[in-house]
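To whoever is on call:

I kicked off a structure prediction for a single chain this morning and the downstream step that reads the tokens threw a length-mismatch warning. I double-checked the sequence; it's 158 residues and nothing unusual in it as far as I can see. Pasting both halves so you can look.
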Amino acid sequence: MERAVTPYPDLIRLAGRTLERVRGGRTRAGAVAKAGCVEVCAGWKHRPCLFPQHGPGKEHERPIVLHDWQRAPVRRYPRQLLRGLLHSDGCRRLNRVMRRRYAYPRYFFRNRSEDILRISEEACDAVGIRHRRSRPDTVAVSRRDDVAMQDRFVGPKS
């Protein structure tokens, strides 16, 4: 896979390797730098069968529903799902409290699709991570032990 100039080279490589593995090594993945993002792609006409949620239009304007065959791996690997969601549309930040002069880490997952937010919340529930909606489009994890648990399996976005 080609190296793309990005602030997250490890994520780009991981996405490319994943696409290649799903295809059984019969397709090479590539990365193309675009305005504001890097597109990781691999040509395969059956990709929509594996990812039926991917389609035309804005994801927050169409239903994102897991099919029955997708539910088993989501239930079996909720940590990996959360990791992927956070690496794509999330972040870990320090929340600074100025009056008391301290800071603590928090995770935020932000998405405009209510369906995807619900999938994220269900994955948090499956792992036992307490969460709340800090905004209508944001799932936040703030409690110290829950953040520490996520730190163990999410890892940096490098």
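Update from on-call: the warning came from a stale cache, not from the record. Cleared it. Sanity check on the structure: The beta strands are 30-34, 37-41, 90-97, 102-110, 132-135, 138-141.
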